[in-house]
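pls ignore typos typing on phone
pyridoxal-5'-phosphate + seq
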Amino acid sequence: MTLDPETATFLIAGPVRIHPRVLRAMATPSLNHRGDYFHGVVQEIRELLPVAFGTKGHQVVISGSGTAGLEAVYSGLVPKDGRTVVVANGNFGDRTDKIVRRYSSQVTTVRGPWGQGLPVDEVRAELEKGDVRAVCLVHNETSVGLVNDLGALAPAVRRAGALFLVDGISAVCGIPVPIEAWGIDAVVAGSQKGLAAPAGLALVHLSDRAVAALHPGTFYLDLAAHLTSLEKNDTPWTPAVPLFLALCEALRVLRDEGLEHRLERTRRLAEASRAAVGALGLELFPDPRFASDTVTAIRNPEGLGDPQLRKVLEKDYHVLLQGGQGPLVGKIFRVGHMGIADWPDLLVTFAALERILGKHAKLPRPGAALSEIVARMP
Ligand code: PLP
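k done
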């Protein structure tokens, strides 16, 4: 039987499974995006965005995937004069570097090995050299299943007086992002991750300081234009109307569950996944001290690449997981457990993994991975 997306177990690292309420919201007939009904939708989104970010602030929604949000932030806030420091320890850190370099010629990139924690001392040393106006980095490095401890860096960024610009695409609604405590000036979220809305929207939170520092960057992604429009429950250009409707419903679902509850469920699913990985005799890719709670990255077992593992999961068990990116293609696979992912998803996934490993005589203790999960269920 070919894979049926309506019934498959879907645990890629975003887009994530979408609640039927949210799917139905997208099927609304065409609306006038300058009419009262749609203004009401935008108003409700505006009122609910603090639920997703966990705080109030200047918040906008951009039609475009997470990268559009990053481009809006970097083009509008990376200084034309003065240095910018980019920190990169994964594929999305490298992407940040590429975007930032389009908007500044004074960029210093501090690189760390993929899967290892932030090179905090090196970044501090760069900040101490002076004239750093912005620090740009990824909070949750989806590509390697790693959380960067921004709290360890935040005081140094503050001392330097630099803007703290964060890719929170797979962090927001998945792990705690203490925006105010860490003095983050801009954070970008993607609709398709912890929020469990369809792909195609970027949510941006800005501090007062960031709003004051905005300069014209790209035309379409001008954050000042988005902020001005949103104050009138409007958007500067024609928005992705069905996605806005879905976002509104996804925010309602989140409000009904509560952000704390969603973060706690995500954390417990992550803990269970890590325990199950150990019971399968497999290894996490990242340093376990920094393993992400939204996505678990696992080294492929010796001799089992994507054709023997993920392709079989998909074909025989209708379980979708994600592979590695860049140099990690075929070397790791990733289980996403953010958004509305829940215990049955994990049980099916790890049962299928047990079966596949068992068939290759690579399963140390049959049933052990499932027992680890069951032991952690509520
Ligand atoms: N940054 C991070 C941390 C991500 O996880 C992703 C997508 O997975 C992106 C950036 C790119 O976002 P998008 O593909 O929505 O443009």
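The pocket of pyridoxal-5'-phosphate is lined by residues 14, 65-67, 92, 138, 140, 142, 167, 169-170, 190 (CB under 6 Å). The mean pLDDT is 97. more later
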